[in-house]
Amino acid sequence: MEQVVGSPKGWIDGDESAKEMLARVLTARPFLLLPPLHRVPLRVGNVVELVGPSPSSKTHVLIQAAVSCVLPKEWNGVHYGGSDHLVVFLDLDCRFDILRFSEMLKHRIIGESIGSMKIDSEKMDFDLWNNDKKRRPAYDEELYVLCMRRFLYARCYDSFEFLATLKTLHYRIQKEEEAHGTSVHMLMIDSIGAFHWIDRASTFMPVGGNNRKSHSLQTVSETVVQEIRKLLVLHPMLVIATKATILGDIYAMNDAKWNLRKPDTSNCRSGRITSQQLPYREYMPSIWQTFVTHRILLRASDDHLPVSNDQNHSLYFSEWLLPSLSFIDKFIVKEVFCFGTCRLASSLFHEVRRDLWCSLASHFLIFPIMPGLW
Amino acid sequence: MAPLKALEQEYPIINSSFQNFCASRGIFSVEDLLLHDLYVLVAFAEQESDAERLKQGITQVLSIIDGQHQPWLNGMELLEDAHRNKHVLSSGCEGIDFLLQGGLRKGQLTELVGASSSGKTQLCLLAASNVAKEHMGSVVYLDTGNSFSPQRITHFICRHSDPAIDQAKHRILQKVMNSILCHSVFDIFTMFDVLNLLELNLRSQMQRGDCQVQLLIIDSVSSLITPILGGSGSQGRALMVSAGFLLKKLAHEHNLAVLVTNHTVGGEGGICKPALGESWKSIPHVRLLLSRDRGGSGVYSVSVLKHPSMAPGKASRFMIDD
Fold first, then answer.
1. Which of A368, A287, A289, A286 is nearest to A335 (CA)?
2. Best residue in A91, A97, A214 for a mutation probing chain B (most B CBs within 10 Å)
3. What is the distance in angstroms between the Cα of A6 and the nearest Cα belonging to chain B?
4. Residue A301: closest CA among chain B residues belongs to which residue?
5. Cβ-Cβ contacts under 8 Å, A314 against chain B
6. Per residue in A68-89, is it b (16+ CB within 10 Å) or e — as a string?
7. CA torsion B290→B292→B297→B299, rounded to 10°?
């Protein structure tokens, strides 16, 4: 009798409770990212590649994603909508500007606090001129410091340093996760092709033994992919790498047919670019190309939007190459003036099918920033 | 690329049995180890007789590897370093200072692009004289075309000062001239030599407070790189990228502002574009395009091609000789 009762009960009991299942699924939930990363749901374990000539706001997109990741969902009653996790940033280009990251973080924090206080921005302008301190929104210094500390940065001056960093990254992440109490959710690499020429020219002939691996582009790329794969098993995270299109001009000079492959805005307007006509020349080894799960092409537009007195807007195009989507997003990176100094803020308006303009929800309010706030 | 043998003295755990084990797997130096999978190596070590010692050896080498990359910093530490060390040096020219929100920033590589006689060398000389005078630092000037002119430096120093006190002016001039170290380099290998020597010197005198090198000028870097860039071979580009990384390393580690000049070449449609190609584009932090206005009025225009925190296209005008 017990046996008969035992097995159906066991079958009804199931493998895991709803709470356990929710806990499991929530850790792998898709990221809520901003344009141009918002078109396809991205999860931990995905490898996204942002391709584009220099400059095309690739680093800007990275910084914005990092800011969203380090902010908490809610803090002191204000809703920030961030992921509340750590970000690891490997700077291979060695051009990262922390001041820009800091300004964007501050802008986002203040924007949210203002949004939550529902202060009319016009009224605030007026009060600025009167220097009315009472109207100044509470700027949460503690939150700012907390978020800045969640941003982990290392730079690499050559492939050896890059490999050394990757090999010891597991232990570093463990240490930092313990210290902060939250896990790493994003690994950013800027940019993955930085050492391409140096590795390609490295004709090191191995001395002493046939099974000695030589330091070449192929072996370095294989090791990089292998290390990141191992890391993703132990620490599931989203990998975002930028890649500059550095082979654009060799072929343009020599061969007329390559001219057809150059990024041409008139082509873009007519629709998608199929995988046969990649608008740039791929130079990363195939092991990296197959490792990448998502790819976005970013491009600067040649014309700038009509410039008002003191603001300058740059227009960029983004197009998803993998998975291939049939439309192109346009986004603007706006500068926000701060009474004599100017900062780049992350105001993104995206255009769907080139007809509609819609602004993102409360995240991006543009307003004059008060002096003396920082 | 030191072999593992060389580490034996300092780390006795890396003894000959460990080295033999590594040699059997094709690993002769620490750099070789970077290209191998350490977990696989540990699995092979398990099968050996002295598995424990081998695994300890692997752990030791891993900690050596940990010391071979740049240190990890978090956002606050980076910000502190930026505020404390990475100040802005005024270039001596108000138009440029206004455009760059203060001037040349330490830790960044600024590139001046322009056709010939568009004011690049004049700006370099002006920046050198200004940094030597106002910021009391020394300047390293790498001159590739014999265009360094002490007379111009004297002119820049003396034009704003009070003509009454000759004695003080003479002293200031002496100090400025002593602070500007000019090297003539005519090929890229000499440039590497000079820069590596500079790096050694800077590393050994980290503690010296006064008269530190604050500005490094290379006029012009394109004349050093263009002869080696050519065809589809990667050697030239590899040298160019290595030079770029060396300059950025010097800028960041030793808090220098680096200023380089580049010329222009014809692009499609007859528009001038900066030389050195696509690979160079991602190396400088800031790229400025200089041009001289027609009419010989001595007015120059400068516009931003790339800046870490500014939209491209912003422009301004200035005069060097007022």
1. A368
2. A97
3. 43
4. B312
5. 311-313
6. bbbbbeebeebebebbbbbbbb
7. -10
Phi and psi based region of residue A332 (left: phi greater than 0; alpha: psi -120 to 50; beta: remaining) = beta
Query: How many cross-chain Cβ pairs, A to B, lie less than 8 Å apart?
Result: 179
Q: Residue B289: enclosing H or E segment and its boundaries?
A: strand B286-292
Per-10-residue mean pLDDT of chain A, 374 residues long, equals 60 75 64 71 88 85 90 85 90 92 90 66 47 54 91 94 94 93 91 90 70 84 94 92 74 40 42 53 90 89 56 76 79 52 36 31 31 34
> What's the token pair of residue B177?
């001239």
Contact with chain B for residue A277, Cβ under 8 A: no
Max Cα-Cα span within chain B: 86
* CB contacts, 8 Å: A247 with chain B: 278
Q: What pLDDT, in 10s, does the model give residues B135-154? A: 888 999 999 999 999 999 98
HSE, CB side, 13 Å, CA atoms: give it for residue B194.
Answer: 21
Q: Which two tokens mark A114?
A: 């203002």
Q: Judge contact between B279 and B292, C-beta under 8 A.
A: no
Distance CA B229, CA B227 (A): 6
If 0-12 CB within 10 Å is exposed, 13-18 middle and 19+ buried, where does residue B9 land? exposed
Q: In terms of DSSP bridges, do strands A238-244 and A47-52 run parallel, antiparallel, or are they unpaired?
A: parallel
Token code pair at residue B71? 């240190």
d(CA A343, CA A143): 20
| pLDDT of B207 above 70 | no
The CA distance from A67 to A37, in Å, is 14
Return the residue of B nearest to A304 by Cα.
B313
Residue whose entry in the numeric block shows the structure tokens 């740049």: B70
Which residue of A191, A205, A212, A222 is the best one to mutate when testing the B interface, meaning the one whose CB has the most B CBs within 10 A? Answer: A212
Residue A105, phi then psi, degrees to nearest 5: -65, -45
Three-class secondary structure of residue A300 per DSSP: strand
Q: Are A96 and A104 in contact (CB under 8 A)?
A: no
Which residues of A, range 280-309, sit inside 8 Å of B by Cβ?
A: 300, 304
Of B18, B137, B88, the closest CA to residue B309 belongs to: B88
Q: How far is CA B250 from CA B43, B80, B256, B285, in A?
A: 41, 19, 7, 14
Average pLDDT, chain B: 87
- Measured between alpha carbons, how far is A145 from B99 in angstroms, rounded to an integer? 30
Residues with Cβ within 8 Å of residue B251, at least 6 apart in sequence: B106, B107, B108, B109, B216, B257, B258
* Summary count for chain A: helices (H), strands (E): 13, 13
Tens of pLDDT, residue by residue over A127-136, are 444 444 444 4
pLDDT of residue A212: 77
Neighbours of B239 (CB within 10 A): 21
Q: Establish if B36 touches chain A: CB-CB under 8 angstroms.
A: yes
Place of tokens 């960093």: A165
Tell me: ipTM over 0.90: yes
Cα B310 to its chain centre, rounded Å, is 21
